[in-house]
Amino acid sequence: MTSKEIKGCAGSHTRVECAALKGSTWGFAVKISQRLQQINQMVLGEYDHIWDCCCDHGLLGMLLLQRQAAPTVHFVDCVEPIMTKLMVALARFFPEQQAKSTSKAQASMPCDALHDNRDKQQQSCWQVHCQDVAALPLDLYGKEAKHLIIIAGVGGELLVQLVDAIVRAHRHFDLEFILCPVHHNYFVRESLAELGLSLKSELLLEENRRFYEILHLTNIQPQDEEALQDALIMPAGSHMWRNLSLNASAKAKAYLEQTIHHYQRIPENKLTQSQRIVESYQAVLAEVTGKGSVN
């Protein structure tokens, strides 16, 4: 599919309440999930570009755009009909202001520099990209730009493939990722650690009787040895098991027991490392239930 890119702009006068995102655009009720709300709350740093990848209806990106989380919020998906509807929604909620040019020279500037209003506080732009997430056009914005790439709601194997392609293509860029795979978390964590990514934060979320791990990662490694060790991506998790409340501890216990039982049911001939994975989660469970010490 040919990559398509549409640009627009949302000024500070635009206010889109969550209720406004519930269906008038798509013709059915749209509820913003706890996962998307949690990811939105985790976006606290200063970024030049935020990429909402595999964005579907674009609700997360709209939340980020609404609160001016970055000068440019990008919406990326390869499903053209969905992206066409999203473009209509963005033009409605965040009135479109076409860039004068899409040349590489202008695309390398902050999006607000493409318009008359150059006050960052008054301007936050959006771009729609109908393309493969593995081929994000980060090069267009220069190596000095700071990017946050969000990928949620996809399987573990696909997520790893996408992150691997992005990291390998942009080794000298300042990249952060917020990732929420729908399964295969152990494999995802081991693979991301092999890519040389470092952990900034992580958490466990329960929604509709399902558990999700959310990881905030960076390709910039800490210089301090203690911080470097703390930023290691552990296959069975680390930060998210610390200092748990009683309620969070109960949820963690339920998740770990569920995960252990899942891997115990897998025959050794189908997953040769299943016993090692089980032992890793059992060690964490012992820590969470007070029979060990959290690292």
What this model shows, in words?
With 295 residues, the protein is of the alpha/beta class. The chain has nine helices and eight strands. The chain has helices at residues 34-42, 59-66, 80-93, 104-107, 156-169, 185-194, 225-230, 246-264, 274-288, and strands at residues 4-11, 49-53, 72-77, 123-130, 146-152, 174-180, 198-207, 210-218. It has an eight-stranded mixed sheet with strand order 1-4-3-2-5-6-8-7, with helices on both faces. Strand 5, helix 5 (156-169) and strand 6 form a beta-alpha-beta unit. The longest helix has 19 residues, at 246-264. The relative contact order is 0.12.
Biggest sheet strand order reads 1-4-3-2-5-6-8-7
What is the molecular shape? globular
Radius of gyration: 20 Å
Structural class: alpha/beta
* Fraction of residues in β-strands: 15-25%
How many β strands by DSSP? 8
**H and E string:** EHEHEHHEEHEHEEHHH
Q: How many angstroms separate the termini?
A: 47 Å
What can be said about the biggest beta sheet?
8 strands, mixed
**How helical, in percent, are the residues?**
25-40%
Mean pLDDT: 84
Tally of contiguous helical segments: 9
Name the poorly predicted regions.
11-20, 22-29, 97-110, 112-120
